[in-house]
């Protein structure tokens, strides 16, 4: 347009570059035009990430170092907020990666062109890649050369079994205090303080998972006439709980499905046995089980199956020989069992 008006565009281009660099915290976009055109940007993060100060501090230390760890894996159960944490940390430390950042959702097919671009960028440039929903160790090892200049922040529902040394950060359920703080970030704190027992029940019905808590907080905020107790009654109904945990594009059932399907997709016999064990466990009246009780339900290989489920983050292992099936996992697997019965 400037040329059409008879003006010299050079000064305007220089001003635009300086302004863009200033607004983006000193990131030099001119140095990475190819990343801008072909690789997606890291999604915008929430302004405040509640209850993750310890994990954020650890990740900043690892990624802001002069020689950052080439691969850092965030592991944890479905709905624990791994993706939100990765995006937030990536934005916070953008200045340490002058050649830019990019984001790939590995739950969807990645084209060979994008894969080649990402691999080249991580090898040759000081870039940070957020690789979300990873399930293949081979793909991560192919994309992230150990001697590359870049770093990758990987999220995965289960340990990937990478052959090279990586740093792992576990992202689990929130504490009671952190869960209440998350609710208070969205819902009027006075409203929460007026129903302390209902709030306590709400936290446990959601397994204190950030995704589930965020959904119920949004629902309460958009329905100021509702009592908190009314919502707990709806969530306590096991037939409709997962239906209720779906709001504003957030879906707890979909998050659980990704973890479950990742286990089902594993080719080895142990994984198939673990899936079967999970379906048996959900029929038990108790969420907590020790090795002896597991063997009564599953047979002599029970401990091995239970440990496979712990690795898949579908079962918790609070102590050696003790296991717990989280409520929302149990409800999801019960739905899958019902689907299998109806198909038979």
Describe this protein's structure.
- The chain is α/β, with parallel strands linked by helices.
- Helices cover 51% and strands 11% of the residues.
- It has helices spanning 10-23, 33-38, 53-63, 82-92, 112-124, 137-143, 176-184, 189-193, 196-205, 210-222, 228-236, 241-244, 252-265, 269-281, 291-298, 302-311, 327-343; strands spanning 71-75, 101-105, 128-132, 151-156, 167-170, 246-247, 250-251, 288-290, 316-319, 322-324.
- The strands form three sheets. A five-stranded parallel sheet has the order 2-3-4-1-5, with helices on one face.
- The N and C termini lie far apart (67 Å).
- The relative contact order is 0.10.
Run of helices and strands: HHHEHEHEHEEHHHHHHEEHHEHHEEH
How many runs of DSSP E, i.e. beta strands?
Answer: 10
Distance between the termini: 67 Å
What is the radius of gyration? Answer: 23 Å
Number of helices: 17
Oligomer classification? single chain
Proportion of β residues? 5-15%
Structural class: alpha/beta
Query: Could you estimate the helical fraction of the residues in percent?
Result: 40-55%
In brief:
The chain has 344 residues and is α/β, with parallel strands linked by helices. It has 17 helices and ten strands.
Outline the fold blueprint:
Blueprint (H helix, E strand, L loop, with lengths): L9 H14 L9 H6 L14 H11 L7 E5 L6 H11 L8 E5 L6 H13 L3 E5 L4 H7 L7 E6 L10 E4 L5 H9 L4 H5 L2 H10 L4 H13 L5 H9 L4 H4 L1 E2 L2 E2 H14 L3 H13 L6 E3 H8 L3 H10 L4 E4 L2 E3 L2 H17 L1
